[in-house]
Amino acid sequence: MVFEVMKVPTTPFEGQKPGTSGLRKKVKVFVQPHYLQNFVQATFNALTPEKVKGATLVVSGDGRYFSKDAVQTIIKMSAANGVRRVWVGQNGLLSTPAVSAVIRERVGADGSKATGAFILTASHNPGGPNEDFGIKYNMENGGPAPEALTDKIFENTKTIKEYLIADELQEVDISRIGVTNFSGPDGPFDVEVFDSASDYVKLMKSIFDFELIRKLLSSPKFTFCYDALHGVAGAYANRIFVEELGAQQSSLLNCTPKEDFGGGHPDPNLTYAKELVERMGLGKSNSGVEPPEFGAAADGDADRNMILGKRFFVTPSDSVAIIAANAVGAIPYFSSGLKGVARSMPTSAALDVVAKSLNLKFFEVPTGWKFFGNLMDAGQCSICGEESFGTGSDHIREKDGIWAVLAWLSILAYKNKDNLNGDKLVTVEDIVRQHWATYGRHYYTRYDYENVDAGGAKDLMANMVKMMSSLDEVNTIVKGARSDVSKVVNADEFEYKDPVDGSVSKHQGIRFLFEDGSRLVFRLSGTGSEGATIRLYIEQYEKDPSKIGRDSQEALAPLVEVALKLSKMQEFTSRSAPTVIT
């Protein structure tokens, strides 16, 4: 099948600036004529010629609404720009971690390796005709594009005059595995549709002891539940948990990927993963049915995770610390030791305490997985995590939700390997409470104020920056709100100098540090498609074993009161309560 290349005149759109998570907008924005094409061509133009001409690219995503159309458009544009071959996951489905694995691990029949990927996802945001769509470019290391490239893409979107497309190229049937061959001005062009799960499953089996996990899952005392929230994780759940590990089919919830995520919000937290939360005994109703021992959920593109025990929530900050503390014994991939650990700045300091105790290299980085990727590429970091339900390791260059679930199952299997026939299994709650007894507890919560007026959000942050210059004034407000709260000893805007490439990231969040080790952090988040999201992080460290069993919201109530007073949250946002509390 022969195709010709068309040069299509176009004009720039405003605001096509990709953030750390790519370009995210409402579907109605993406379906405008030339909108997607402009961004894709701007990306091709920003890449060096050898990453385009004759290259192999991956094009897939979480299957949200508009993905199938976008896959066909990018195939046609890849052909026109001289790409040699495009790899597409069956039905256009690949989780974000699987894309990273495919770039790093997959070798084509002719020895080809991918040099990059267009990932079609808006992560944990809703999908559907009136909801969100997104696109991002990942590099040859499997990680997100660095700022230097995303800046270049953005500059290109402002001056673009034309894009290249093989518009008459026959659409590829992406539901069928196989290779479709074409011929164009630059020679042959192929599209290979491949099984979405195989490469990823093979990688997971090289990291974890599947036989040990299988023994745990086969124990009548251990019950398990996994909720994909109708995201792309469903394309992996049956293969891994049922076929490979022997879990019951009935233990999978919402594991059929849907374009609109079943009308839900595919964000794995206590607010949006309602069905799982109820099943795990953490909901408001009491069904009288005994909850499973272990539960987990994924977001739309399967890079985030939530871990639950029976009637017990594990904070993401505790989760990464517990994985790091147990990795060497429980996970074969880490048996020779950890190179180092890292967390994002807003994540609690639970990981810091583990790193200090185990004498590990430790890094505190801005929010954005690319910062972890730099450390991993330099051989300095093995395990890392973000409080926003993202956990991962150096096996790929993205956070990985299913990896985190397998890490927890590995720890449970390791702790119970000599106890499967005993009276009682070591539970998720047992592991967490033992961790607190050893390392202390970091009481932690996050308040999200979603889709607030962008102007009000900016004014709130500007006012906080202004306040940082007078700690006396800050402490007057603190004491006026709650006399039982420690005094603020430092306030700053977090800035990071990358130890690998020397780049400096400024304005990464406002921090108030208290004398007793407590912290308040305020950040503007860029992961939504409209308005602004203010994230407020509240943390208090408790080492006294007699005080580590309190309810988190109760323990943090005084600090919450101080944070709301200090920031004038209601005054600037007109919100009397957060959208989500985690």
TrEMBL record:
Catalysed transformations (reactions): alpha-D-glucose 1-phosphate = alpha-D-glucose 6-phosphate; alpha-D-glucose 1,6-bisphosphate + L-seryl-[protein] = O-phospho-L-seryl-[protein] + alpha-D-glucose 6-phosphate; O-phospho-L-seryl-[protein] + alpha-D-glucose 1-phosphate = alpha-D-glucose 1,6-bisphosphate + L-seryl-[protein]
CDD domains: PGM1
Regions crossing the membrane: none
Any one Gene Ontology molecular-function term assigned to this protein's record: magnesium ion binding
Pfam families: PGM1_C_vert_fung, PGM_PMM_I, PGM_PMM_II, PGM_PMM_III
Cofactor: Mg(2+)
GO cellular component annotations of the record: cytosol
Physiological role: Catalyzes the reversible isomerization of alpha-D-glucose 1-phosphate to alpha-D-glucose 6-phosphate. The mechanism proceeds via the intermediate compound alpha-D-glucose 1,6-bisphosphate. This enzyme participates in both the breakdown and synthesis of glucose.
Subunit structure: Monomer.
Protein name per its UniProtKB record: phosphoglucomutase (alpha-D-glucose-1,6-bisphosphate-dependent)
Species, as recorded: Gossypium stocksii
